[in-house]
Amino acid sequence: ALFRDELQAVFGDRRVNEIAGLLGSFMGLAPVGTPLVQSLAMRPEQQMELSRAVLARFLEEDARQNPRLYVIDDIHLADDESLDVIARLRADLGETTLVVITAARPELLVRRPTWCRAEGSHVRMDLGGLSALEMGVFVQCALGTKTLAQGLAERAAIECGGNPSLLGELLSAYHEHGILASDTKDAWLFDRDRAEQEGPLLSPEL
After folding, report:
1. How far is CA 15 from CA 53, 55, 81, in A?
2. Between these two residues, 40 and 136, which has the higher pLDDT value?
């Protein structure tokens, strides 16, 4: 019901039932048995093509009412069909106040070497790891201290490679394993010997 209400607000009275039937698959919703959807049931390629076009129109109409920013994280984990939909949006969207940000790890380019080379207005930005100074500031803010525990920054740099997400996970792991402990309200102790004994604390999946 919420999905249909949103479509009604964007499209007005323009055949919302059929639009819901086409866009529902993107939401994991059961298809609405409209005549159009039923006629396309035996033509999945045509149905997907039409669904992509309607999705683009929905995003355009929504952005005409208010500028929109969409952020899609970890798209390297998406299936091929989802990647196809995202890639096509760059070419299908017209002139509208809408920005789509997609974030991925480098392995996406192994699956899709031509990513960000398709039609449409887009910019690719490659983000490197944190510098030693930035990592130090990150740790200070995370621990709420102005002084870094001796050896912590050097060891963290080796294990997380400057990845801020992994650095946050690593600090939690250090604390959980007793490698990083608070000495006073504003100071922390880092057990370098124990860190060496424990070895890498982050799983390969991270």
Report:
1. 15, 14, 26
2. 136
Angle, CA 8 vertex, CA 30 and CA 61 arms, to 5° = 105
**CA distances, 26 to each of 19, 45, 49, 77, 85 (Å):** 12, 15, 13, 16, 10
Residue 62 phi/psi, 5° resolution? -65, -40
Nearest to 51 by CA among 29, 66, 68, 72: 29
| Cβ(128)–Cβ(169) below 8 Å | no
Average pLDDT of 69-76? 92
Residue found by looking up tokens 């963290």 in the block: 156
- Does residue 206 have a pLDDT over 50? no
Q: Is the pLDDT of residue 71 over 90?
A: yes
Buried b / exposed e along 92-113 (16+ C-beta atoms within 10 A): bbeeeebebebebeeebeeebe
**pTM more than 0.70:** no
What's the first-to-final CA gap in the chain, in angstroms?
A: 37
